[in-house]
Amino acid sequence: MNLPPGKFPLILAPMAGVTDWPFRLLCQEKGATHSYTEMISAKALVMKSKETALMLEKHPSEGPLGAQLFGSSPSVMGEAAKMIESMGIFDSIDINMGCPAKKIVSNGEGSALLREPSLCARIAESVSRAISLPVTVKMRLGYDSPNALLVSHLLQESGIVSITIHPRTRAQMFSGKADWNAIRLLKESLRIPVVGNGDIFEPEDVIRMLKEASPDGVMIGRGALGNPWLFSRAQALLNGIELPPPTVNERIDACLRHCEIAASAFGLGAVVTLRKHLAWYTKGIRDSSRLRAELTHASTIEQVRSILEPFRALT
């Protein structure tokens, strides 16, 4: 990974309905070194879905960006990877072998692939042979029980250049604690880089994961929701500098900037789709439950601004 001096790989995880380019741009401005698109259906892309194609838009100011594909057919995954590479705007392609969502798993995709290690290998080999871009995999610890070590070795021999591991099984969903020791074991066992993911909510969590598991990078998912400052605070802490959490004013400014960027990208109606982001940004502000209730009815930037501005007095 080519990084600026003093930067450690802190990567924004692909998240469905979240990591469009406005959010990715905000996170990269705050210190994320790499990011990924939302999950892209290989089948839908090959069938030339216009909605899926829109999910592959990239802003000119974005830094390194990977496209994440999901599917269960090796040939379709390879064909979709070719289509993405031909766009000439992506730095890598990631294969989703970790999504636990029922609608994904029920189609034999995402984390369901881990039930068939040989299929995982065939998909990885098909995509790796189809393109010249680096191919990576994001996976879970297993489906019902851990088998990440077996699968990761098959992936390594199938052309995958790095693996991101969320050390929970699909059966666990997001319950319990992520088993960071599993990251360490994978790192010690593989030749290729291993990126750790799971339970990163504070800058100190990044430091702890590095001490406990020694990954080659850290991927941040849920911890970044409404909190792009997590990247800049973690980068600073890695360099011995402790930055304070964002102020109420900084949260409000981020809300409004996100709305403006999204409106410029997707039209004024985009504010409605940002309501979940607005709720995440304002979590922790005093009387935030009332604030979030008001924001659920906002449909324009002006309405969002009129709701948020009175809360500046709470700083």
Question: What's a quick, concise take on this entry?
Answer:
The chain is of the alpha/beta class.
How is this structure best described in words?
The protein folds into two domains: 10-238, TIM Barrel (Alpha-Beta Barrel); 248-314, Non-ribosomal Peptide Synthetase Peptidyl Carrier Protein, Chain A, CATH 1.10.1200. The protein starts with 9 loop residues before the first strand and ends in a 7-residue tail after the last helix. It has an eight-stranded parallel beta barrel with strand order 1-2-3-4-5-6-7-8, surrounded by seven helices. The protein has 315 residues and is α/β, with parallel strands linked by helices. The chain has helices spanning 21-29, 42-46, 50-54, 74-86, 102-105, 117-130, 148-156, 180-189, 203-213, 229-238, 248-266, 270-273, 275-281, 288-295, 301-308; strands at 10-12, 34-41, 65-70, 92-97, 135-142, 162-169, 194-197, 217-220. β3 (65-70), α4 and β4 form a beta-alpha-beta unit. It has 15 helices and eight strands.
Give the beta-strand count: 8
**What is the alpha-carbon Rg in Å?**
19 Å
Strand arrangement across the biggest beta sheet = 1-2-3-4-5-6-7-8
Measured by DSSP, the beta-strand proportion falls in 5-15%
The helix count comes to: 15
Keywords:
315 residues, Non-ribosomal Peptide Synthetase Peptidyl Carrier Protein, Chain A, 2 domains, 8-stranded parallel beta barrel, 15 helices, 15% strand
